[in-house]
Structure formats: C-alpha cells, structure tokens
Design brief:
The structure holds 2 protein chains of 2 kinds. By secondary structure, chain A is mainly α. In chain A, about 70% of the residues lie in helices and about 0% in strands. By secondary structure, chain B is mainly α. The chains are: A mainly alpha, B mainly alpha. At the A-B interface, helix 1, helix 2, helix 4, helix 5 and helix 7 of A face helix 2, helix 4, helix 5 and helix 6 of B.
C-alpha cells in the first residue's frame, strides 16, 4: 500500500527543508523549495511503499527543484537584492554567495553524483546505506563520491569569487 | 601504509568511515606524503563546503512545524473528478470507442419499418435478450452517427446485458 502524501509530508518536511537550506542557504528560498517539492508529489503521486523510498524520491526531487530554480534565475557574478546585496548583514551576503557556489557546483554533476554527495554530506549516511538506497554497489558509490567531490573542488577553485566567469 | 593503500581508502578517509587504527595509519602516511596530503585536503575542503549549510534535524523541525501541505494543489487534486484528471487524449479515445461501439452493437439489430402513421425516417430496433435500455438508447443514437464493425458491438452488448 503506497504511503499517503500527507503522511510523507508530516514525517519528511523537516528533512526536505534541511536539504533545501543546505543547497539554497536562505530560509525563504528553502521554504519555497519545500512547497515546490510537495506540489510535485501531489501532482505526480509517486508510488512509495516505505519511508526509505520516500526519502530517496524526495532527495532527488529536492535537488532537481533547486537546480531548476537556480538555472532559471542565475547570472554568473550577479546577486539580486533578495540575496543580501545592500543588506546591513554581511553574513547574509556571504551565505548567499556560498549558496550560489554550492548550487552552481552541484548543477555540474551527474544526478547520481549529486545524490551521493547529498546523502553523504547532508545526511551522513554510510556508503553501504547509500548503495542500498540507490540500488548500486558500494564501490560505485565511492567512485561517485570521489568524482563528485573532485568536481566540486575544481569548480570552487575555478570560481573563487562570484565575479568570476567560466 | 603506502600511497596505493591510502588511495584505496581515500573515500572512507574523507567520509570518516575508517576505524581508529586504520585512520591513524593513514594520518601517519599523510604526514610524509605531500601528494596524498594535498589530494585528501582538497576533497575534505569540498566536503566541508557542502556540509557547512546543514542544520540539525531538530532545528529544521522547529522551522517547519507550521508548514502545511500546498493547499491549492491539494484542493485541486481532491476536488477534480477522476474524469477530468485523465489526459485529454484518453478521454477522446474513450469517447470514440464508445461511439464506435454503439455502431458495432446496432449492426446486429434489425431495423423495423416505422409504424403506420409514424414519421418518415424513424428507426425502431429490436434485439434478443435483456439489455440496459438507457445504454441501448445512447448507443443507438451514437451508432446512427458513427457506424462500425460487428466485433466490438457484441462486446458492448454483453456489458449492457443485465
């Protein structure tokens, strides 16, 4: 019997928010992402039998929603007023810049690399747990992990400031 | 531990999955190998950047406790009848099949001449066996507009029989 969306929402909305915040670095954006993720769940009605399946599905959709939103609005090197420019809080600008870097770096990865990094870095899952969730071997998970981190490291090094262009 | 052995354990080292003893061996190797040390630190810095935006689950739960399911989407999905949720193509296909089915049914019927005094062009049909009269009336109307082959007509006729 598939889980009800309302049950998944009640049990996993905080987790979706954690992922969204780690990717967006802004509370309001993270809340918008949570809404978008569950709108997709209501529209698509995925057949999810366990909370584990639901988490895997939600993690994938959260990443896709964040990347889609970022690709629609991105300007390399530009930040909108909503991102903190002109704000009296320098931390807000730093968070916004870091969020842009993280999203841009993750957008360059394959979906599997992105999901492995999210599961490892955001949820602190073991390689064995990630392998079971994704249905792949542990060695493959480790390969995705290293290649994903290599790509993130290279992208961050190449774009150390928001003003850099690729 | 040599460089190859360290590279074999690099994912576990960066991902904090090594036992204390193996981790100690790895750190001993890194103390004397600049290449492995540089690679490991680069990967750890990338991981730290990703991890820096993560908040505890309890804090995330506090910030989202007032959040509700998207009301507009939920209402739309609950109130819309099933027929309106079907893709338009499926609805069209179902309508065409039903219309052809009516024609298929009537191919097996005999048209009786109109009764004396009846209007010209009126068609009366009779068929053996008990059938759903309302369904037959609808199918007869559709069949006059959309004639079809006999096979499907008998399938629909069996559905209409009580």
């Amino acid at each position: 019997m598939p889980l009800e969306i309302s049950q998944i929402f009640a049990e996993q909305r905080a987790q979706v928010y954690r992922w969204a915040l780690a990717l967006c670095r802004r509370h309001d954006d993270a809340l918008d992402v949570v809404q978008d993720v569950f709108v997709r769940a209501l529209e698509n009605r995925p057949s999810l039998a366990t909370i584990g399946e639901a988490r895997a599905w939600l993690r994938r959709v959260t990443a896709n929603v964040v990347i889609d939103r970022w690709r629609r609005t991105r300007r390399i090197g530009e930040l909108s007023a909503a991102d903190g420019i002109g704000s009296a809080a320098p931390d807000a600008l730093a968070d916004a810049e870091q969020g842009q870097r993280v999203r841009a770096a993750l957008a360059e990865l394959s979906e599997r690399q992105r999901l492995v990094l999210m599961a490892k870095c955001f949820d602190n899952l073991t390689f064995a747990q990630i392998a079971q969730e994704l249905g792949i071997s542990v060695s493959t998970v480790k390969t995705y992990y290293l290649r994903g981190l290599d790509a993130v490291r290279d992208w961050l090094a190449l774009n150390q400031t928001i003003g850099s262009t690729l | 531990m040599n460089c190859q052995e360290f590279r074999d354990r690099l994912p576990e080292y960066v991902g904090n999955e090594l036992s204390a003893a193996v981790r100690a061996d790895a750190q001993t190797h890194l103390a004397s190998c600049g290449d492995c040390r540089g690679r490991a630190r680069g990967l750890q810095a990338a991981a730290a950047t990703l991890e820096s935006g993560v908040i505890p689950e309890a804090e995330a739960a506090r910030r989202t406790e007032a959040l509700a399911l998207p009301a507009a989407a939920r209402a739309g999905m609950e109130l819309r009848p099933l027929s309106l949720r079907l893709p338009a193509l499926l609805r069209y296909a179902a309508a065409v099949a039903l219309a052809f089915g009516g024609g298929y049914l009537l191919r097996g019927w005999q048209a009786e001449p109109p009764a004396a005094g009846g209007s010209a062009g009126a068609v009366r049909v009779s068929v053996e066996g008990a059938v759903n009269p309302r369904l037959m009336q609808s199918l007869a109307s559709a069949a006059q507009r959309y004639p079809g082959s006999p096979k499907l007509s008998w399938s629909l006729l069996s559905l209409a029989r009580r």
